[in-house]
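> @MW can you paste both from yesterday?
MW: sure, first one:
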Amino acid sequence: MSTRCFCRSLQKLFLRGQATRVARLCNSLVISDEKRQCVNNFSQRSHSCGEFRPSHSGEEVKICGWVQYKRLMFLIVRDWSGTVQVLLPESMLGVLKDLPFESVVEITGTVHARKDGEINQEMQTGEIEIQAKSIKVLNFCQEKLPINLNVNADETNEMQRMKYRYLDLRSEQLQFNLRLRSVMVMKMREFLHSYGFVDVDTPTLFRRTPGGAREFLVPSNYPGRFYSLPQSPQQFKQLLMVGGMDRYFQIAKCYRDEGSKPDRQPEFTQVDIELSFTTQEDVRNLIENMILQSWPSFKEQITLPFPSMTYHEAMVQYGCDKPDTRYNMKLHTVDDLMLDCGIQKIEDNMKRAGAHCVALVVPQGSMFSRKEIENLHIDQKFIFVKIGKSGEFKANTNKFKSNTMQRLSSELKVQEGDLMIIVCGEGYVPYEVSGKIRTKAASLLEAKGVKFIPDNQFNFLWIVDFPLFLPAESGEGLESAHHPFTAPHPEDEKYLKTDPLEIRSQHYDLVLNGAEIGGGSIRIHDADTQRYVFENILQEDAGQLQHLIDALSYGCPPHGGIALGLERMLAVICGANSIRDVIAFPKTVEGRDSMSGAPTEISEDELAKYHIQVAPRKTTEE
């Protein structure tokens, strides 16, 4: 049976049905003879555990799997597809007595339909059982497992799960997540191949790239010289466009030595795409159709086109550039209403250029305690007003004029039980603070039992017209808002040599339920412009990228592309708390491998081969 047949079988198995748990999803499938042959070819078994139905009655079968449960004269055997009950004759009960849970067995027997009173509605194979004729223990499991496979992952210590990841992988949810990942990647590949994209592997040993995230260094046999693991295949895919490849994609491994965040890993996978003679509208249309093609059928279906919003609109309406639009709670600029609010500090601040007052209304937010409200943002003070019965106001300051509160409540259409929050500051700061409060308030409402964020709803959103450059975090000069290869917006190219901060970029981000799952841009394809950006605006040594600048000067076509964060997208689709739950062998938040102990120390003899000396650790006294 061909690999294509095998993949299609898995695709059909995992993209059907409405169940949310993997066992119910797999067990609800009636597998045809053709599919069964595909899934069970090249193995010793005749069937998978979760596929049996009354139609199999009378068949001689062989199954292989793990012992999930045993009692008296029967046991439950599990594999990736689900579970099945096996009834043992008295002659085999001795094997059952000394058989630990999670031992691996091979069983042959006959499928029998259960009597009406014996049907187990909790099992998708509950209408049948297998009467065993032989049982072979392929491997015994230790009596005590270090993690409990029968409880929800949230109830198990994550560090233990990471240390014994090979056991954790047997869990229903991880089996589901990883198989869904496989199917979605396969469908993305098929889609891209159908439109003429070429799958090209690019090197993972490269040179250091100026700017961007910190990179992992790899020692070489040349004293004092190091490779760098690439943050992305960015330069290579642009060079492929110079080389006339026209349409490229890769399921690419990327590496970034970044800090500890739930949505980041030191190594991760992205769906990397680049094409020549395109526009950002073309790229967005391509990605929308690819996602539609690979979208799981058992999830709420998505519609095209995805809505779009400028960076400025996102900031002033939601306070961030990756808003979760599943719920409303938009921000409101209330500058005019706060000019005479009774709070002198705010009135004085509003006289400054660029100052703003931003308000948002938290529905039913009056149920929050004062401490809970203050904890919505602990780094900046803000005004809050609870709306009580008959519309009376209860503010956290007695200086707030009642007529201002009345005008605000009228403007914002507040209702009894709502909570008004007002943040003041300069530039985007009050919007960013309000955006963080918005997100935390929504989570707090959910924690208190208020159904505020819809389940199983997927809101895609494009964010466009980002600034091309930003003031550097160091306080000196400018830095790229995304990366230095992004082309300026055609309407703003005139500012390149006079006012770079006024330039919008041709960058676009794709957001899903408040998570940035992808980003791309139209690239600079002119050597002179690229050199000017490096040397004159970013004050970088263009010599480090001379190979790319040279390539652009040899007839580089206009081109653009995008990279989708595969794990981030899957985490949202699967409802996972972290991208670690959609990766087979992830690192911890600190970037360590709990299972193997990596990174590990290297002996001085090994280090000497690479001409490396490790500086001694500094003590606290030093």
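MW: second:
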Amino acid sequence: MRHRATGKSKPPRPAPAPWPAFNPRLRKPEKNAMIVRNAHATDADRLAELSAELGYPVEPETISRRLRRLLKNEEHLLLVAESPTDRIVGWIHAAQQDVLEAGRFCEILGLVVGSGQRGQGVGRRLVEQVERWAHGRDLSHVTVRSNVVRPDSHPFYERIGYSRLKTQHVYRKRLAPEK
């Protein structure tokens, strides 16, 4: 390949580096900085507290049971954000979806940031880690559904690059109690 201006040969561009395997702690955290790490079953109490704060009251035992099941599934990602004092201030749950008409993509199934930590970059950091995970799995995009009763969350997603695609109604029919 020749340079347009000089006509001299240009060295070939190096191949892009492969995307690193997902590890939310690729860099050593700064002192007194929030960290993002994989969730553990022992986080259930705090995750239940944060869920209740957002209007989803659920027993810690139920969260613990679900966590143990989901943590075994490689198509699910559960991360927590921890403050410098080791207190969990937010969590995110994402999953790889494989849909006939839409292909393989990542969907954020839940994102909760404690009320005292909102607006401090916690949600952004959690979403960025999900995006890295999805990119490392060659998923085409990340989707999130944001409830219309949470209008404060809609500008958050727009600020971090998400576009609203549609408004929809969600229907549910209970078949049996959860086991």
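> thanks! Confidence is low (pLDDT under 50) at residues 12-21.
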